[in-house]
Design goal:
- The protein starts with a strand and ends with a strand.
- It contains 2 helices and 20 strands.
- The protein has 2 domains: 115 residues, Immunoglobulin-like (Sandwich); 111 residues, Sandwich (Immunoglobulin-like), CATH 2.60.40.2550.
- The strands form 4 sheets. Strands 13, 14, 16, 18, 19 and 20 form a 6-stranded antiparallel beta sheet that branches. Strands 4, 5, 6, 8 and 9 form a 5-stranded antiparallel beta sheet that branches.
- The chain is elongated and about 60 Å long.
- By secondary structure, it is mainly beta.
- It is 5% helix and 58% strand.
- 29% of the residues are buried.
């Protein structure tokens, strides 16, 4: 058992590898209360890398559910994780009708059989775009064939004692302003591989067929949206 709260018991029952989307952390959720309950995640961290997650599980009163948290293979690969040694789950309960958040679990750490072979080397090759306030942002490369249109891959390291959110602002490609999407939560002492997504329609409107230079700025804020730092304009030459 990894967490028990308000009549709800959660037990980690194992790992299933090579599923359709990646590796599954299997959970048995027992709702012994007289109310329906939802279980969601605030964060999933693998080998100290933040991993995107959309876990949302509902268990009606008096029933059980064999469910799972999926570690997407694409994100594990981007972070260079081959051996999963440690998984940290931050879960919470919620009301399935109102979606109001209830109790939070704090960090639930699962040390797996691969803990002895855990990947410890960070994939930090690229151009340092910002380094300060114990935060490092590295521009790695541009994927011109992503789902959104094009994406700028970033490595971010948070060595501070605060959980932070990194966002980008005022992005231009080859001198043209382009709509971009990026907001990444990074817990204290953790790392992330993330991307700035560039809308295909904006690139087409500006007749951009090849990305050569990107200019943007980064804002670093706390979980309470208080600004810690702003990088000012930074340039990332791709060619």
């Amino acid at each position: 058992m990894i967490w028990e709260v308000d009549g709800v018991k959660i037990t980690a029952t194992g790992i299933t590898e090579n599923t359709l989307f990646g590796t599954q952390v299997n959970l048995l959720i027992e709702n012994n209360s007289d109310k329906d309950v939802g279980i969601g995640s605030d964060a999933v961290i693998v080998n100290d890398y933040m991993i995107s997650d959309l876990t949302s599980i509902t268990v009606t009163a008096g029933n059980k559910s064999n469910s799972s948290v999926t570690l997407l293979s694409s994100e594990l690969e981007a972070a260079g994780i081959e051996n999963i040694g440690k998984v940290e789950l931050y879960l919470h309960t919620f009301d399935p009708e109102t979606y109001m958040t209830g109790k939070s679990s704090g960090c639930l750490t699962l040390n797996l059989s691969g803990i002895e072979k855990i990947d410890t080397q960070s994939n930090i090759e690229g151009t340092v775009l910002y380094e300060g306030n114990e935060v490092k942002i590295v521009g790695q490369y541009v994927d011109e064939n992503s789902f959104w249109g094009s994406s700028v891959l970033l490595y971010i390291e948070n060595n501070s004692d605060k959980n932070i959110i990194v966002q980008n602002e005022d992005l231009s490609v080859n001198g043209f302003m382009v709509t971009s999407l990026m907001s990444q939560n990074i817990y204290s002492g953790k790392k992330a591989i993330t991307a700035i997504h560039l809308l295909k329609t904006d690139l087409e409107t500006n007749n951009i067929t090849s990305i050569e230079n990107i200019e943007t700025s980064f804002k670093i804020i706390t979980e309470n949206f208080e600004e810690i730092a702003n990088s000012g304009k930074v340039n990332f030459s791709v060619k």
